[in-house]
Specification:
Largest sheet: none
Structural class: mainly alpha
Number of helices: 1
Order of helices and strands: H
Helix content: over 70%
Number of domains: 1
Distance between the termini: 126 Å
Shape: rod-shaped
Length: 87
């Protein structure tokens, strides 16, 4: 019986230390995964903010283009009316 306990104990210790090592590695990998996910979330938010800023600039440019086009049409109309009244 004493021989059995001597042989079982080291196996139990080996399995226990192996399990602890696996648990440690799993926790390390989960920490790495969480860090990468957080980094990706941050990059996604930065990208989203840049896209919103770009869309805002695009809308402003479109509105300025529409205003400039309207002003040109207005000047064309005034010019045409002036030409017609002179004739």
């Amino acid at each position: 019986m004493k021989l059995f306990k001597q042989k079982v104990r080291p196996v139990t210790e080996i399995v226990g230390s192996f399990t602890a090592e696996l648990r440690k590695r799993k926790e390390e990998q989960e920490a790495i995964t969480r860090a990468k996910a957080q980094e990706m979330d941050t990059e996604t938010e930065e990208y989203r903010a840049k896209m919103e800023a770009l869309q805002s600039v695009q809308k402003e440019a479109i509105n300025e283009t529409i205003a400039a086009t309207a002003a040109i049409k207005g000047f064309e109309n005034m010019f045409n009316q002036t030409q017609q009244s002179e004739e």
